[in-house]
Amino acid sequence: MEPQPIIAIDDLTVRYGSFVAVDGLNLQLRRGELFGLLGPNGAGKSTTLRVLIGQRRPSGGKVTVLGRDVVRDWATIKPLFGYVPDRENHFEEFTGRGNLQFFAGLYRVPQERINECLKLVELTDAADVLVSAYSLGMRRKLLVARALLHRPPILYLDEPTANLDIHSSAIVRRILRDMAAAGVTVLLTTHNMQEVEEICDRVAILCRGRLVALDTPLALRQEHVERKVDVILADGGRRVFDLDCDEDRAKLSGHVAAGEVASLQTREFNFRETFLKLTGTEFT
Question: pTM of this prediction?
Answer without folding.
Answer: 0.81
